[in-house]
C-alpha cells in the first residue's frame, strides 16, 4: 500500500512539474506589451502602405496588372493582393477591369 501511494505521488509530482514548466516557458516568450503591440501594428501599417505604393509604381511601368503580378512582385498571398487592390480601388487610385479570371487593374 505504501508503494502504491509513493508511485501515485511520484506520477502526480511529475505531471504538476511538467505543467508548471510549460506555463513558465509560454510566459517567458510573451514579451508583447501594449506599447510593443502598438509599434507592431504601426510597422504593419507602414509596410502595407509601402506595398500599395509599389503597386502604383508597377502601374506606371505597365498599363495593367493582375493579382498574380502583385503576388509575385511583393511576395504576398492571393488574399493580401486582392485586399490591396480593393483598398486602392476604394481610394480611387485604380480601376478594376474584366471579370473572373480575366480581371486586371489600371491606374485612374
How many domains, as an integer? 1
Extended strand count: 2
| Cα-to-Cα separation, first versus last residue | 85 Å
Query: What is the helix/strand order?
Result: HHHHEE
CATH superfamily: Winged helix-like DNA-binding domain superfamily/Winged helix DNA-binding domain
- Overall shape: it is elongated
Number of helical elements = 4
Question: Order of strands side by side in the largest beta sheet?
Answer: 1-2
Report the top-level CATH class: Mainly Alpha
Helix content: over 70%
Features:
two-stranded antiparallel sheet; 7% strand; mainly alpha; 108 residues
Describe the structure.
With 108 residues, this protein is mainly α. It has a single domain (2-28, 45-107), classed as Orthogonal Bundle (Arc Repressor Mutant, subunit A), CATH 1.10.10.10. It is 71% helix and 7% strand. It contains four helices and two strands; from the N terminus they run ααααββ. The chain has helices at residues 2-29, 34-61, 67-74, 78-90, and strands at 94-97, 104-107. The radius of gyration is 26 Å and the shape is elongated. The N and C termini lie far apart (85 Å).
Secondary-structure blueprint:
Blueprint: H1 2-29, H2 34-61, H3 67-74, H4 78-90, E1 94-97, E2 104-107
Antiparallel strand pairs: 1-2
